[in-house]
Amino acid sequence: MSAPETFEGEDGKAGRAAGFFRSRWQGTAPLDRLFWRDLVLVGTAINIAVSVLALILLGLKLPLALVLAVHFAPVPYNFFLTFAVWRTAEKTGGVKASLMTLGAVLWLLLVVVI
Fold first, then answer.
1. Are 87 and 25 in contact (CB under 8 A)?
2. What are the TM regions of this chain, as residue ranges (predicted)?
3. What is the DSSP letter of 40?
4. Torsion of CA 35, 52, 61, 64, to 10 degrees
5. Average pLDDT for runs of 10 along the chain of length 114
6. Of 26, 84, 87, 112, most Cβ neighbours within 10 A?
7. How far is CA 41 from its chain centroid?
8. What pLDDT is stored for residue 11 in this prediction?
9. Closest to 34 (Cα-Cα) out of 91, 81, 79
10. Which residue from 111, 41, 26, 32 is spatially nearest to 76, judged by alpha carbons?
11. Smallest Cα–Cα separation from 96: which of 21, 51, 11, 31?
């Protein structure tokens, strides 16, 4: 497995992170990896961890504004992943891609509501 491609003027972790986001947004990442690993596994794990942290902060009786800010912090990333799946599925086409798009939208509704 090779390292993600870095782009001109980018190096180190910042370059890999930019390459990660760019490849997903441009639809060059494989749809299966994007959906199953990035969205379902990593995205769900991030949301669960942040929700647990928010509950701990609530239990410590910290200000509600802080608790809500922590709880909703991953929402922009959730939207990014959902739209990345959508864009990649449009390029890929087929029934499987359509099902993954539907799954991504349902996942987004689930993680935002809960």
1. yes
2. 39-58, 64-86, 93-113
3. I
4. 10
5. 49 79 91 95 96 96 96 96 95 94 96 86
6. 84
7. 9
8. 60
9. 81
10. 111
11. 31
